Amino acid sequence: MEKVKGKGLAAKLGSDLGQRILAIALAIIIWMILSITQYPTISKTVSSVPVDLTLTGTIAEEKGLSALNFKDMTVDVIIEGMNYEIGSYAASDLTATVDVSSVTKKGTYKLDIDVKSAHSADKVSILSITPETVEVQFDAITSKEFDLSPSAPNISAEDGYSLGTVSCAPDKISITGADNDLSKIAKAYAVVDNSMSLSEDRNMTTNKIVLYDKNDDVLDSSLYQFPDEEYTLSFPIFKKKTGNLKVDFTGVPAGFDLSALKYSISDNPIALLTSDLDDKNEEDITVGSIPLSELDLERIYTFDIPFSAGETSAEGITSVKVTFDKEGFTSKSFSIPKSQFEVLNNPSGKKVSFDTGKLTDVVIYGPENVISKLKADDLTAQIDLSDIGTSAGSMIKNATIYSSKYRNVWCVGTNEIQITISS
After folding, report:
1. Do 151 and 107 belong together in one domain?
2. Is residue 320 left, alpha or beta, with left meaning phi > 0 and alpha meaning psi from -120 to 50?
3. DSSP assignments along 7-27, one per residue
4. How many structural domains compose the chain?
5. Host domain of residue 29
6. In whole angstroms, how far apart are CA 181 and each of 138, 142, 226, 409?
7. Residue 138 maps to a domain
8. Among 18, 84, 106, 337, which one is least packed by beta carbons within 10 Å?
9. Per-residue tens of pLDDT for the chain, all 423 residues
């Protein structure tokens, strides 16, 4: 009896399962019939549909153009279609693209946005797109090389030192961007933002590039592409020192009082910069020599400054002018007889005789109160024979005129004495 009951239960369950499947199928059929007959079409809003812009296969691509300012964007779309087809539509079921068919040259275009179903079999109508258009700029992308200058506004030198000319390596940069944007670049800088004071040479690296236009306005760096490279800025440090300038005088008779020559040198003392950071703080520099016999108190003498290696002027001064105080000085002409000629460094075993009887028109400069008292007897014409060696015969030697009585007068001009040297 129990076995008979078991068979009846299985048969009953099998009968119920079939009925259930049939009921589900009928429900679907009824829903489809109602959808088609009662609600044949519906409209629906699909939000945040991504918009794509591609130039593949377009005239713009052939012209080498690129979309410069297009960024990721989405649109909201109202669609219409059969309820059973679009009822579950989401953003991924639609494709939105920018129509670039009208782009044929550089410029800014207002372009339509096209939307369609991602499922080709579905019959979907597009009722509206928000926004309907997008403004896009098109230009050719190229690369151009620019000079690269260093910029480190917060780097300075410690007291007693000076920061020299900062350099950048490499000093060229290749920048990629639109032709129109590249044409705006007037200056390019590699920038170090560090803040410090230096007392020795230092190198710093950076990859920060800042661009300026001709009006010194900063350009938007996002419009350009830069090499993936670091740039080295070199900061040379110089020590400050003082140069005390002076003039040397040649052909000065023994005992002459050089303090009688009152002169001044422009820009004296001079501020110097030296790369030798251990150098002393002060030095004397002789800018040039003036033969005493050519000294003209009315004249202005110009000399280039003889800088040592690694040394420069802190103010860019390369030459100076020497002027003399002529106030209270005068000149007078004299004749010096042979009796007041003398020989210095007479060679051993040689006899010197003077063929010149006297020197005339010998011009002597000095203080007025001295010149007024000076007499020809106070003057001596001296020739130096240290350079003749074993020479003999007649020759002409230039004489140095001096006064052993007055040590602050000097002769200007050339005074030659002819002599004869014999054994």
Report:
1. no
2. beta
3. HHHHHHHHHHHHHHHHHHHHH
4. 5
5. 1-39
6. 12, 10, 14, 75
7. no
8. 18
9. 344 444 555 555 555 777 788 888 787 776 666 655 555 788 999 999 999 999 999 999 888 888 888 889 999 999 999 888 898 999 999 999 999 999 999 899 999 999 999 998 889 999 999 999 999 999 888 899 999 999 999 999 999 999 999 999 999 999 999 888 999 999 999 999 999 999 999 999 999 999 999 999 999 998 899 999 999 999 999 999 999 999 999 989 889 999 999 999 999 999 999 999 999 999 999 999 999 999 989 999 999 999 999 899 999 999 999 999 999 999 999 999 999 999 999 888 889 999 999 999 999 999 999 999 999 999 999 999 988 877 788 999 999 999 999 999 999 999 999 999 987
393, part of any domain: yes
Contacts of 289 (CB under 8 A, 6+ apart): 247, 248, 249, 250
Tell me, yes or no, whether 253 lies in a domain. Answer: yes
What are the tokens at 335? 């004749």
How far apart CA 80 and CA 126 sit, in angstroms, is: 6
422 vs 168: CA distance, rounded Å: 72
- Residue keyed to tokens 């010998």: 362
Q: Is the peptide bond before 306 cis (omega within 30 degrees of 0)?
A: no
The reply to whether 204 and 283 lie within a common domain is no
Statement to judge: residues 12 and 51 lie in one domain: no
Q: What CATH code is carried by the domain that includes residue 224?
A: 2.170.120
What whole-number distance in Å separates Cα of residue 101 and Cα of residue 60? 8
Residue 270 lies in a domain: yes
Contacting residues for 212 by C-beta, under 8 A, at least 6 apart: 185, 186, 187, 188, 189, 218, 219
Query: Which pTM does this prediction carry?
Result: 0.57
Strand order in the sheet with 416-422: 351-354, 416-422, 393-398
Which CATH number goes with the domain that contains 349? 2.170.120.30
Instruction: Count the Cβ atoms, other than its own, within 10 Å of residue 276.
Output: 13
Q: State CA 275 to chain mean position distance.
A: 20
Last residue of a domain, one of 189, 214, 234: 234
